[in-house]
Write a structure and sequence with these properties.
Layout: E1 4-7, E2 10-13, H1 24-28, E3 31-39, E4 42-43, H2 46-59, H3 68-81, E5 87-94, E6 113-120, H4 129-132, E7 134-140, H5 155-166, E8 171-176, E9 179-183, E10 187-192, E11 195-198, H6 209-220, E12 224-227, H7 232-236, E13 240-245, E14 249-256, E15 259-260, H8 268-284
Parallel strand pairs: 7-8, 7-14, 11-12
Antiparallel strand pairs: 1-2, 1-6, 3-4, 3-5, 5-6, 8-9, 10-11, 10-13, 13-14, 14-15
The structure holds N-(5'-phosphopyridoxyl)-D-alanine (PDD).
Length: about 290
């Protein structure tokens, strides 16, 4: 079945969707995006993703092409038209098409480009990887300095993912000044006793929407949280580790640079947080 995708107000078969070669997203990576998961046909933590999209657009002065209600209606329409039970919605907003290439931004009244599409992922929440956990390797963080803005400049994360796979791992944790920033497309955590350690919010990492929910639920479950950087050595000596993202939810990490974490199996706290998170998110899904 051909997907129906959204392009600037229209719902089109994916083969008919067109974007200009001059689009700022294409020539300058001048755009932002969001990934929202769908479980049982409902959007997970839509308000969180909506708020971060607005923050990313404001930070780059791209402007707001649609209202919050427009996005919600459009996402629901895409879910319905593509009969998505479990899956993802990808949304991208760029500074639009100036009609030529120029480093200077186009005039403020240039319409933004808004595209969105669905990815069907049957059984997304029952991912078998959650039973075995991910293997992680560390790599230098060579991204730009505003990682809190969710831009489409994903070449370095993509290179890091490939380098991790080449080493037989599932993902990379990026390291700057000796401390882990985050994963290629997820936030990183270690657990020691009853304490969860994850890097504090700043320009150095993406402010994960899953991170915010998981930390809130962890506090409610009487776990201690320390928001600070940690070294790869501290991670290899931890009892457990995990990552969070809209597509992986809470995913246990079982080794780092070839060294087993804890007993080399997914940890109890990660498993519990995954369960609590999914329960809570299903209840509040829109
Ligand atoms: N990535 N850090 C980075 C660098 C990310 O790209 C992501 C999300 C996260 C987790 O954020 P959230 O919990 O809001 O999904 C952290 C998405 C899933 C992606 O690029 O596909």
């Amino acid at each position: 079945m051909s997907r129906t995708v959204y392009v600037n107000g229209e719902y089109l078969p994916e083969g008919e969707a067109k974007i200009s070669i001059f689009d700022r997203g294409f020539v300058m990576a001048d755009g932002v995006y969001e990934v929202v998961s769908v479980l049982d046909g409902k959007l997970i933590d839509f308000p969180g993703h909506q708020a971060r999209l607005n923050r990313s657009l404001d930070a780059l002065e791209i402007g707001q092409p649609l209202s919050d209600e427009d996005y919600l209606a459009m996402f629901r329409e895409l879910v319905t038209r593509n009969q998505i039970g479990d899956g993802l919605i990808y949304l991208q907003v760029t500074r639009g098409n100036p009609g030529d290439r120029d480093f200077a931004y186009p005039p403020k009244d240039t319409p933004q480009t808004v595209v969105a599409f669905t990815q069907a992922k049957p059984g997304l929440a029952e991912n078998p990887a959650a039973q075995t956990g991910w293997k992680i390797v560390t790599l230098p963080d060579q991204r730009w300095g505003r990682r809190d803005i969710k831009t489409v400049q994903l070449l370095y994360p993509s290179m890091a993912k490939m380098a991790a796979k080449a080493q037989g791992a599932d993902d990379a944790w990026l390291v700057e000044d000796g401390k882990v920033t985050e994963g290629t497309s997820n936030n990183a955590y270690i657990v020691k006793g009853n304490t969860i350690v994850t890097r504090e919010l700043s320009h150095d990492i993406l402010h994960g929407i899953t991170r915010a929910a998981v930390l809130r639920l962890a506090r409610e479950a009487q776990l201690q949280i320390e928001e600070r950087g940690f070294t790869p050595e501290e991670a290899s000596a931890a009892d457990e580790a995990f990552v969070t993202s809209a597509s992986a939810f809470v995913m246990p990490v079982v080794s780092i640079d070839g060294a087993e974490i804890g007993d080399g199996k997914p940890g109890k706290i990660a498993a519990r947080l995954r369960e609590i998170y999914l329960d809570e998110m299903r209840k509040t899904a829109l």
